[in-house]
Amino acid sequence: MKIIVQKFGGTSVSSSESRRIVLKKIIDKVKEGYHVVVVVSAMGRKGSPYSTDSLLDLINKEALNPREIDLLLSCGEIISGVTLSSMIREKGYKAKVLTGRLAGIKTNDNFGNAEVLDVDPSNIINSLKDGNIVIVAGFQGVNSNGEITTLGRGGSDITAVVLGKALHCNQVEIFTDVDGVMTADPNIVENAKVIKTMCYSEVYQLAENGAKVIHPKAVEIAQQSNISLVIKNTFTDSEGTIIEKADTNFYNNRKKQFNDKILTGITFKKGRNQIKVKTDDEKNETERLMNDITINKINIDLINFFIDEKIFTVEDKDLPVMTNILKEGNYKYDIIKNCCKLSAVGYKMHGVPGVMAKIVNALWKNNIKILQSSDSHNTIWCLIYEKDAEAALKILHEEFEMYK
Ligand code: ADP
Ligand code: MG
């Protein structure tokens, strides 16, 4: 059976006009002889009546438990799915809508950010065999007690990839409102350019560090399962971005587009806080600090350890607990709030001298302070103030001529 999975994001299903475009993309694939599995997100973004944010606005989150919140949130994708199915039927095709549970998506119990443990695709396969276009409500699954769970923001991307894996597809199409993965967020950097081919590790770095065009976990699962991802714009005919493994083909294609350019993409993530703690090992403070962080399940990042000082960052959500640990533990510490982690990604930077110097100079020239930095084989991270985030993105995009 020739199966294709197509995922359509919130803006793609937000209005009847956009859904008509989606409909055409689906029917084109049916005409090419594919059995089509469509994964949909909730309609639109903040402000749209049935979007995830609008559903959240209906309730007081503090007063409800995560189970009920997931029950509510799962409705957004079901509404999208049923709406789209009525349009498909109007066109004379058979369509069947499946919730996460009916699509066989089994997760753990972590309401609000559940992990997919297993997928049983038999229901989808039977529905396809019956001649249906199968529409799956994205972003949701079911735990071992039959309770509805959701997969976290952007989770429909995960739905699409786990279904692609279970259905043995070698490609999954992700349709969104931009022309693909771009050198920077095009809503901030006007002359950002589509990156035609990317390897998994580059996209993962961009996605993990703020470029929300694809969920990092979806990239990870695609890599493990050797599924190539195509990210395209629902509203244009652009070829989009193909994400696959870094083989000779990838290197050749990359060279064709970017020649020897060092940076592929830049992005940022706000809501970081830099913590500096003085540690005295006569008093076992390093060990105590690490234990406190572990017990409280705080995720620390950009970690620089010196003998008498430990520097790292925490997300806003962990700041109250982190501050409490530092106060209660009588540590000597400093906190810089409102920071932003800027990430510059490109597999080519490995072993190339001077990349960091160029970044530092460009930012300093524009009075943007770097509070901390770190690097890996394909990424350089700089911690800057949140207020400088957009400017820094534009400056580096120009400096490295990423628009070319
Ligand atoms: P969808 O609802 O289709 O899943 P998302 O809002 O999750 O769409 O992701 C698309 C958005 O990602 C774009 O509108 C864009 O503003 C943002 N974005 C951030 N960084 C990038 C990037 N490097 N390339 C493309 N889009 C990006
Ligand atoms: Mg998304």
UniProtKB/TrEMBL annotation:
Q: Which UniProt keywords apply?
A: Amino-acid biosynthesis, ATP-binding, Diaminopimelate biosynthesis, Kinase, Lysine biosynthesis, Nucleotide-binding, Transferase
Taking the record's annotation, the residue ranges forming a coiled coil are none
One GO molecular function term of this record is: ATP binding
Query: Which residues does substrate bind?
Result: T52, E77
InterPro entries recorded: AceGlu_kinase-like_sf, ACT-like_dom_sf, Asp/Glu/Uridylate_kinase, Asp_kin_monofn, Asp_kinase, Aspartate_kinase_CS, CASTOR_ACT_dom
Task: List residues of the Aspartate/glutamate/uridylate kinase domain.
Answer: 2-233
One of the Pfam families matching this protein, by short name: ACT_7
What top-level branch of life does the organism fall under?
Bacteria
The pathway this protein participates in, as annotated, is: Amino-acid biosynthesis; L-threonine biosynthesis; L-threonine from L-aspartate: step 1/5; Amino-acid biosynthesis; L-methionine biosynthesis via de novo pathway; L-homoserine from L-aspartate: step 1/3; Amino-acid biosynthesis; L-lysine biosynthesis via DAP pathway; (S)-tetrahydrodipicolinate from L-aspartate: step 1/4
Q: Where is the CASTOR ACT domain?
A: 336-398
The UniProt record gives the binding positions of ATP as K7, F8, G9, G10, T176, D177, K212, V213
Which reaction equations make up its catalytic activity?
L-aspartate + ATP = 4-phospho-L-aspartate + ADP
* GO process annotations (BP): diaminopimelate biosynthetic process; homoserine biosynthetic process; lysine biosynthetic process via diaminopimelate; threonine biosynthetic process
The protein's Enzyme Commission number: 2.7.2.4
Q: Does the keyword Electron transport apply?
A: no
An example of a Gene Ontology cellular component annotation for this protein is:
cytosol
User: Top-level EC class, please?
Assistant: transferase
Q: Which NCBIfam families match?
A: asp_kinases (TIGR00657), PRK08210.1 (NF006068)
Give the UniProt family note: Belongs to the aspartokinase family.
Q: Function of this protein? A: Catalyzes the phosphorylation of the beta-carboxyl group of aspartic acid with ATP to yield 4-phospho-L-aspartate, which is involved in the branched biosynthetic pathway leading to the biosynthesis of amino acids threonine, isoleucine and methionine.
Protein name (record):
Aspartokinase
Organism annotation: Acidilutibacter cellobiosedens
